[in-house]
Amino acid sequence: MAYAEQAETALLHEPKSFLTRYIWSQDHKVIAIQYSLTAIFVGLIALVLSALMRMQIGFPGSLEFMDASTYYQAMTMHGMIMVIYLLTALFLGGFGNYLIPLMVGSRDMVFPYVNMLSYWFYLLSVIVLLASFFVPGGPTGAGWTLYPPQAITQGSPGTEWGIVLMLVSLAIFIVAATMGGLNYVTTVLQARTHGMTLLRMPLSVWGIFMASILALLAFPALFVSAVMMLFDKLLGTSFFMPAIISMGQALDHQGGSPILFQHLFWFFGHPEVYIVALPAFGLVSDLISTHARKNIFGYRMMVWAIVAIGVLSFVVWAHHMYVSGMNPYFGFFFATTTLVIAVPTALKVYNWVLTLWRGDIHLTVPMLFALAFIVTFLVGGLTGLFLGNVIVDIPLSDTYFVVAHFHMVMGVAPILVVFGAIYHWFPKITGRLLDDRLGKLHFWITFLGTYAIYFPMHYLGFLGMPRRYYAYENYAFIPQSAQDLNAFITVAALIVGVSQLLFLFNLFWSAFRGKPAGSNPWGATSLEWQTPDTPPVHGNWGAKLPVVHRWAYDYSVPGIEQDFVPQTVSDEELGRMRRRAGETQRADAKP
Amino acid sequence: MASHAPTPGEPSPSALSSPAAGWQGIAGDWASDKDAFKQVPWGKAMMWIFLLSDTFVFTCFLTGYMSVRISTTVPWPNPSEVFALTIGGTEIPLILIAIMTFVLISSSGTMAMAVNFAYRRDRRRTAALMLATAAFGLTFVGMQAFEWSKLIAEGVRPWANPMGAAQFGASFFMITGFHGLHVSIGVLYLSIVALKVLRGDYERAGNYQIVEIAGLYWHFVDLVWVFIFAFFYLW
Ligand code: HEM
Ligand SMILES: [Cu+2]
Asked: Residue A276 CA: which ligand 1 atom is closest?
């Protein structure tokens, strides 16, 4: 295998100048940071948009410029940015890029040049997306689901340019995600180091690996629907457009199928939920195991659960379409599959809890976020069981119950993991620890704050308060007290939003002034903590690739001085460690 | 590989113990260290995965087309009439498509031969056969351009056509266009690789795998055409 040997010894494409080292870089670590910073930047825009929306709902009329169109535009951009341009990009492009090669012990992704292109396409997609704020008519206000016909007919905001830019941007993003995903999957399959078997990989790698596969198979549906909708919009075809009378005039469309779009969109959209969730599952497993100093409970079960969830996620999509008018028998089928997918998911939650059971739990900032994830995900998952059942979903559909559900399960929960993971891996990326006290403050405000925001929304949903409304005055069925609750939610949302500045400040301050971390501050076992340099340099491993002798979860191992055994330690080495510890013990025992 | 006795708590993957037979053995090989697919170079693995992803793209296109074909209320034009050519006074249905399909399938043959010669390190023949494949591809695209212009001349547009359902033109241009794009990219790709073969780039690197990888892509594009042929022209 000449090709593999070659990669073991030779450092390919050693960067020469500042430009190739930090800008046009092919190093997976630099690309990861580029991806992450860009994603965090757009994420902040989405956060500001959510604050604007909440101002309108909590204190109607308080923002001069806020009208129904602006509200819809803010809502659409907020949702799309959060799901695609923040979370997907951050988990796959950010964490995937940084962690995969380091965790499986390779020097880089298999095709660094393609990897670099992936980032630049991502940046281009972000620019195209943001450009829609500045075109005539503004960004699209079709809702992040972009349902036709309203997405492209007169009357929705942003039908001139906004929707076109949105679709083009999504298509570019998909090209970027494909180039990245091919790299991640191939690297995991074909470029692991000696001794790194599939079932020794940390669960972080498993989660990101499976999510990348889902991305490669789910994004095509979004790509195709974007192309078809662009045709409908620009060429006047009728893929999704039935005969319509709009503003008193019959449109030139006839015979298309709006439901087809919904099927294509959710064939992508549901796996997308897991593209965001599976990396979070993986990362949080490693956080919990490391900070509870305990091996992950049921490692193999965890791996199979990830795989099973990945497979099942392709057969549940129409649970988003119970009220679309599709054949009711579909509802029966999709409700069943939805409940089936809850089984491996629940299994993971049990295993996290069992990992904590009698663990030596260190309440570090990453651990706090990991614990918060478990509770938040549990709440979101349980409301998901409600919504997965047709009869319960129909009255709750399009109410704030749904908003509460998906924010808990795929908004807040993954974001909590993102934070935890950043606090955990920041020392490896920069060589410095994030400030602990700021981190704890940030954690408590974010965690309690998100509950203050989303918990009341469940009740609003039961009251029947519809989602995607710009104003709630003068509806007989919404009691006055709902308005007070909305004001409360808004205040909480603003506090949470502003508190993220703490985090940003912590990031930048600690990157330069933080406490030096050493190479393995958490006493973790996986490969990325065993690099010869911190932060790891180009090529990651110096002259020789690491050799792996064990899985990534040997914590609290008895009989040795440190309480963990890194993956690189062989059994002979472990034996020596045991003897050494025994000698010191005997020496200590002497009076 | 050194022996790894499972440590306590380790799930002791079967790959590490002595080689097992049957399914266990397959699973063990697959999960063993370094690479899941033994002897498969990175580029080839990546191409396979890409093709899997691209399969989903074409599947979605075809499913979309079939679903609008069912949902439209206007009758669908009869493909064998629309795609008929009048040659020597008789109207022959689907004749052009038949020739196009034949050309494309032949190109798969020449491609397979090119891969064969690449493994024998026969630079000249490899390059010649690859260029022949590209030429077949170009012929295909040329005939497709002819077909497009013929239909356009008859008034078929993406948004309407005189023969029936508007979705006919929309699906036709979209699907054959997207496939034609794949063929055109393939022609370019094959030509570049062929020139590099001729120049001896791979001889120096001692590795002709790229020819096989390009071949994979090309066979895939052909295979997709078979499905388009079946679902669009024969239905
Ligand atoms: C403090 C944080 C956040 C606040 C205050 C917030 C607030 C909101 C509000 C007010 C809406 C509009 C609801 C409506 O009118 O129907 C909304 C929609 C949405 N949000 Fe968030 N959000 C936050 C974080 C997130 C995150 C992290 C995600 C990531 C998944 C997310 C995803 C969405 C989606 C997908 C929609 C639906 C958009 C649509 O209906 O088209 N949000 N959010
Ligand atoms: Cu779903």
From this structure: 30
- Sorting pLDDT into bands at 50, 70 and 90, what band is A248? confident
* Ligand lying closest to the C-alpha of residue A411: 1
Q: Which residues pair with A432 in a beta bridge?
A: A516
- A338-384 pLDDT, tens per residue? 999 999 999 999 999 999 999 999 999 999 999 999 999 999 999 99
Q: Is B1 on the interface with A (CB under 8 A)?
A: yes
pLDDT range class, residue B19, cuts 50, 70, 90: low
What distance in angstroms lies between residue A321's CA and the mean position of ligand 2's atoms? 9
What SS3 state is found at A285?
helix
Domain ranges of chain B: 39-233
Query: Would you call A194 and B34 a contact, using CB atoms and an 8 Å cutoff?
Result: yes
Which residue ranges make up each domain of chain A? 20-241+254-356+366-430+438-589
* pLDDT mean across residues, chain B: 88
* Ligand with the closest atom to the CA of A321: 2
Question: Which of chain B's residues have a Cβ under 8 Å away from the Cβ of A191?
Answer: 34-35, 42
Say yes or no for a CB contact (<8 Å) between A574 and B7.
Answer: yes
In this structure, the residue with its CA closest to atom 29 of ligand 1 is: A411
Inform me whether the pLDDT recorded for A163 exceeds 90: yes
In CATH terms, is domain A20-241+254-356+366-430+438-589 a member of 3.40.50.2300?
A: no
Cis peptide before A536 (omega within 30 of 0): no
List the residue whose alpha carbon is closest to atom 22 of ligand 1: A50
Q: Are A5 and A11 in contact (CB under 8 A)?
A: no
What pTM was computed for the model? 0.94
C-alpha distance from B37 to closest chain A C-alpha (Å): 7
Q: What is the DSSP letter of A524?
A: -
The CB of A460 under 6 Å from ligand 1? The reply is no
Question: Residue A306: CA atoms inside 13 Å, Cβ hemisphere, count?
Answer: 29
The domain defined by B39-233 carries CATH number 1.20.120.80? yes
Q: How far is CA A132 from CA A62, A136, B166, in A?
A: 25, 8, 31
What DSSP element (H or E) covers A417? helix A413-430
The DSSP string of B109-161 is HHHHHHHHHHHTT-HHHHHHHHHHHHHHHHHHHHHHHHHHHHHHHTT--SS--
Q: Following DSSP, what letter does each residue of B44-77 receive, concatenated? A: HHHHHHHHHHHHHHHHHHHHHHHHHHHH-SSPPP
For ligand 1, whether the C-beta of A468 sits within 6 Å is yes
A221 vs B contacts (CB less than 8 Å): 56, 60
Three-state secondary structure call for residue A375: helix
CB contact under 8 A, A554 and B9: yes
| ipTM greater than cut 0.90 | yes
